[in-house]
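Lecture 7, part 2: worked example. A protein chain together with NDP.
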Amino acid sequence: MAERKKLTTAHGAPIGDNQNSLTAGPRGPLLMQDYQLLEKMATFNRERVPERVVHAKGSGAYGTFTVTNDVTRYTKAGIFSEVGKQTDCLLRFSTVAGERGAADAERDVRGFAVKFYTEDGNWDMVGNNTPVFFVRDPYKFGDFIHTQKRDPKTNMRSSTAMWDFWSLSPESLHQVTILMSDRGLPQGYRFVNGYSSHTYSFINADNERFWIKFHFKTMQGIKTWTNAQAAEIVGQDRESSQRDLFDAIGRGDYPQWRVCVQVMPEEDAETYSINPFDLTKVWPHGDYPLIEVGIMELNRNPENYFADIEQAAFEPSNIVPGISFSPDKMLQARIMSYADAHRYRIGVNYAALPANQPQCPVHTYHRDGNLRSDGNSGGAVNYEPNSMGGPVEDSRSLEPPLKVSGDADRYDHRDGNDDYTQPGNLFRLMNSDQKEQLFSNIAEAMDGVPERIQTRQLVHFYKADPDYACGVAGKLNLTHVSEQVATLADLSLADLIVKTSAEAYSEVATPEASLAKAAD
Ligand code: NDP
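Predicted complex, written out as structure tokens:
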């Protein structure tokens, strides 16, 4: 029999006894000098890194992206350089609101974050399973997430907070409609589409820019649970999506996605009827059809969840030559906030962790910092410019200039914005069963929410489609407000807010009051 490896301390010294601590006499007390026990306990105490503020609960796997269609007329990105080319990737799925121990089968948006290890550096496509988002100005992001998390006093999630915020932010209606539809509760991660949601850009070899949206269409088909089915699943298995993904890959049933892009010529953005950089809007397929670029397959489970998935750090700021940003305000804010969150969560040298390491050479003048584990560039020159042969810039990766115009100001992002047509279009393409599910899911989610907030939200449904409001009102037993909803729908948002305020309903607007009402 081969001799087993010897147990050591973290510093390599042999451990003679890993069962009994060092004590004065058999009954104790412990001796302070038992540094092996201290190291073991202290390391254990530090096992958890802070969980992500959002997307804390996740699953992931490694895979391969294969180009199936030539898009080199749109982009010079090496990953797309020829049909048949393969690039390694890592995909992390997640729920958004739940903490790291939350159940998988919950109604929530699913995160869909892919890291492509290209020859020009890591390209991260940090998307969701929905093509739009709840807000279009990053100023509102933290507020929105607070409504999804726990109430500061009750430490419970608050449906009143969610619907209060959504009903005061009509730009959320599109995403709310998707979240409350059948697609809001996927059977597992293999059964979701992924979307960049944001508009990005492609730049080709002639330095021409195109605006781009990425779509990852599941080849397993969209599969969803009803609320009742999910309640049963959660009762039996809180890790249903993790298990489904891990087991499928384990048995060689590799999930695949058809990767497509919508392409908009740069100048179209000036005249297109929709602001193409508005994260609450899609580009209708009729205007910009999907063009297939490749197939993404997941074919390798993580060897160690913490190293491969928990320490994986995805950031929209990871772009490569040929793929770049757009003026989308939400994307612009994420360029800062994701890398910032990783520096806080796993440390400034997080790019050197195995899951995040590029598969191409890295040459920077960054030095030092916590947990520098990559040799810190040894004795190489640490300033630039230098005449010591250090790495130098390469102007071939420069982008064409981007035209910007306008006065710096805080522009009202709701001014002249149509928040209703696209959610209405989505509602109208649902079949009657999907509409029924939508109505019931919303009514369940609104349980206990004050009537004035329900009424305010019904107005938004009405403006998307009167049948939408009518269906939800029926499930809420609120058909008596139908006439009022139709009248309120003619008001401006400011007037609607006044008419549905706590004062207008002689209600005390405090979390306690809402909670008491919910308990009635
Ligand atoms: P299309 O008829 O060309 O596309 C409809 C899209 O709706 C399809 O991509 C379909 O996805 C998707 N869809 C169907 N049911 C749901 C649901 N419950 N939740 C989310 N998506 C769903 O029409 P348009 O391009 O004009 O879009 C109409 C509406 O469809 C939009 O307002 C938007 O709400 C929604 N949509 C549009 C997308 C786009 O990029 N244009 C992307 C996703 C949704 P699938 O093909 O996988 O079945």
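The two ends are 69 Å apart (CA to CA). The beta strands are 58-67, 86-95, 110-118, 121-128, 194-195, 200-203, 209-218, 256-265, 291-300, 323-324. Keep this in mind for problem set question 3.
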